[in-house]
Write a structure and sequence with these properties.
Blueprint: H1 6-16, H2 25-50, E1 62-64, H3 66-92, H4 96-122, E2 127-130, E3 145-149, H5 150-160, H6 164-184, H7 187-201, H8 207-225, H9 232-235, H10 239-265, H11 274-286, H12 290-298, H13 301-322, H14 324-327, H15 340-344, H16 346-353
Parallel strand pairs: 1-3
Antiparallel strand pairs: 2-3
Helix pairs in contact: 1-3, 1-4, 2-6, 3-4, 3-7, 5-6, 6-10, 7-10, 10-13
């Protein structure tokens, strides 16, 4: 019996999620059609700018509403987590009717919790590249799917009062960058899945440790409500899990930072109002209301936003130092990925992965152990 009732997760999320903005049927259809078109347009821009070549066809994005996003994410969670959760559940069951009843009740509670979190996120996510899809029996379907949440994109562009075409293409550039990352580096999907599964397998705790972590979670909630700095993710981590989480954070910071860098740096000839969009988007992110700030901090979202900013800074610095072709060595293998320390110190990654002799002449050459060049890359400023 699974530790998460997936059907309860879907029904809870769909029941709790807020409806999207009021949009005329004709405008809604136009938005969906344009998002599909712009997602295809973005593919060419991303490939040309990054020099990365996907190994499988892209195709237009799947455009969904909020309930559709929840269903897709529950399916993705199930693909990755269910085999591990079933293994953990089997190891922990005490056996007999009482054990099965306890697991059944617990799985429903966990399903409600997951659904509640997804209902919150479903009103805020603009798009994503779905890494983990249910297996295709024929083996013909793509291994991942680019998804755009139309109600959230329309709501955000209205709230920001920006050009809809520019904003939609800007979002597509970010999400298309994720598709290119994973389809040009097939090993990357397995690496992320392995890290997630290791994280779960390292969570095998006894009752006393579980109570301690629950107390830590309660302390985290109280700390955030007092205006302090804490989150539930860290409260539930063991020391071993923290090390794994550092690896997950590093690769996701790289992926998200790269997406942010590309969406801003592709250029005003593609998205004329990109600088204004970024400025207003950043201001909106920083101006969340009190309830949103509390929820975001508890879920670790604010921490992740900081890490994504660090990822974008890493990409800008490395591209400036050594050029795009040498930066793309990050996608070669798990060994060339930056560590979390290297995300925060790009020169350390350059010294480890990019041989000084391989540095392009136009960027200058320096003694071994010294990184040539300086400053940060171009592109719109992060106001």
């Amino acid at each position: 019996m699974s530790l998460i009732d997936w059907d309860v997760a879907v029904s809870t999320g769909v029941r709790l999620v807020r409806p999207g903005p009021q949009v005329d049927l004709a405008d809604a259809r136009q938005a969906v059609a344009q998002l599909r078109e712009l997602s295809a347009t973005a593919q060419g821009h991303v490939r040309e700018f990054t020099g990365m070549e996907p190994l499988e066809p892209g195709g237009p994005a799947a455009v969904v509403d909020r309930p559709g996003w929840i269903k897709a994410n529950v399916a993705g969670f199930r693909v990755v987590l269910e085999p591990v959760l079933d293994r953990l559940g089997g190891e922990r069951l005490t056996g007999g009717t009482a054990g099965n009843l306890t697991t059944a009740v617990g799985s429903r509670v966990t399903g409600v919790q997951l659904g509640a979190v997804l209902s919150y996120l479903a009103g805020r996510v603009l798009g994503q590249y779905e890494l983990f899809l249910p297996p295709d029996p024929d083996g013909r379907a793509p291994t991942g799917r680019l998804t755009l949440v139309a109600p959230n994109i329309v709501h955000t562009e209205r709230e920001l009062d920006v050009d809809p075409h520019d904003f939609r293409l800007w979002v597509c550039l970010h999400e298309e960058t994720h598709r290119v990352q994973f389809t040009s580096s097939p090993w990357l999907r397995d690496y992320v899945q392995e890290q997630m599964q290791e994280m779960l397998l390292a969570s095998n705790v006894d009752a006393g440790q579980l109570i301690d972590r629950l107390r830590s979670a309660g302390d985290a909630v109280a700390e955030v409500l007092r205006g302090g700095d804490a989150n539930l993710i860290e409260a539930f981590q063991s020391e071993e899990q923290s090390e794994i989480m550092d690896r997950i954070t590093a690769v996701m910071s790289l992926a998200e930072g790269h997406g942010d860098y590309v969406m801003d740096a592709v250029g005003p000839e593609v998205v004329p109002s990109v600088a204004e969009i970024r400025r207003r988007f950043q201001r909106r992110r920083e101006g969340a209301n009190r309830v949103d700030k509390v929820i975001r901090q508890l879920l670790g979202i604010d921490l992740k936003m900081k890490q994504y900013e660090e990822g974008a800074a890493f990409v800008r610095t490395v591209v400036t130092r050594v050029g795009m072709a040498e930066f793309n060595r990050v996608w070669e293998s798990p060994e060339t990925l930056p560590t979390l320390k290297e995300i925060r110190n790009p020169d350390a990654w350059i010294d480890r992965v990019v041989r000084p002799a391989a540095l392009p002449q136009e960027f200058g050459e320096g003694p071994a152990g010294l990184s040539p060049g300086g400053g940060t890359a171009g592109g719109p400023p992060r106001e």
